[in-house]
Design brief:
4 strands; alpha+beta; four-stranded antiparallel beta sheet; Glycoprotein, Type 4 Pilin; about 160 residues
Length: about 160
């Protein structure tokens, strides 16, 4: 009978004694937290990238509208973006948007170009340098693939990598 009582003994400590976690239990808990964090951080970074791209696309669309309104009021495209907005507006990566009035530029040297070296706009170029902050005139070059561009005279606004004329 005493053996039976010893087996049914409650598992909580007596007065003044504290139950704690063993080293193995702490290590397992830390391993689980580590796995969850290693999954969450890349997912959050990917989410932030999508948000930044969407913000840049929206901003280019708004700036395009402001430039069109300016042209209607003044009869010409603005010389720079400062004429169409108040304050310095930066893209989501902290750099200014790039604007080139192609109606006053001699030749197509400063115009952004597609894979066949044709200018992607005839009126003005407006784009963000993207996450890497580097760009080349041709959209299909590696440095330009992450740029957010306005192309086909405003019919397309989005990542340069997704543009096809």
């Amino acid at each position: 009978m005493d053996e039976w009582r010893a087996m049914k003994k409650p598992r909580h400590p007596g007065p003044g004694k504290v139950l704690g976690m063993t080293l193995i239990e702490v290590m397992i808990a830390l391993a689980i937290v580590g796995v969850l964090v290693s999954i969450a951080i890349p997912s959050y970074a990917s989410y932030r990238d999508r948000i930044d791209r969407a913000t840049a696309i929206k901003d280019v669309g708004v700036l395009q509208t402001l430039i069109a309104d300016y042209r209607l009021e003044m009869g010409a495209y603005p010389v720079d973006l400062a004429a169409v907005r108040n304050g310095a507006r930066l893209d989501p990566w902290g750099r200014p948007y790039v604007y080139v009035d192609l109606t006053i530029v001699n030749g197509n040297g400063k115009a952004r170009k597609d894979h066949k070296f044709n200018p992607i706009n005839s009126d003005f170029d407006l784009y963000s340098l993207g996450k890497d902050g580097v760009s080349q005139p041709q959209l299909t070059q590696k440095d330009s693939l992450d740029d957010i561009v306005r192309a086909s005279d405003g019919a397309y606004i989005g990542p340069a990598a997704d543009y096809s004329p």
